[in-house]
Amino acid sequence: MKPNCILHPQLAHALATLGHGDIVLVTDAGFPIPADANRIDLGFYPGTVDVLEILSVLSGELCVEEVRFDTEVRDRNPKLYKSVQEIYTGSGADFGIANHAELVADIAPKAKVIIRSGSFNAYANFALTAATDANAWFTDIDPLPAYVERRKRIEEQYVPSLK
Hints:
By secondary structure, the chain is α/β, with parallel strands linked by helices. It is built from seven helices and six strands, in the order αββαβααβαββαα.
């Protein structure tokens, strides 16, 4: 058994298959997951496993360039919003808007993996867009401007926020 790593074999495999731009959708317990989705169900009782636990672990396991979610998180669930900000501070990720209808109709069918939590936390659905580690990829050549910006956000411990 490997210590300090994801033990769930299906989740570990799914994360290992991600490429730049792939989407991981982390959802609350009630999100309507498409029947043909690569679904990893971690919810087994209300609140367990919580969406924030999943996001926290994932933030250490994969590079994320954007976290998209409904503005209702910021506007109607400030505690959740603050927690997600704390998780992604200094990660280089930025926040983007995807309302619930877009998450269901557009993003869920495109997601490479959907992780269902046991969370009953209102509006707790987050689309993570996978990134590459710019420091690993651009060692002998100048990185693209987006990578320079992400490096800057990491170095400055940037706190992401919805615009």
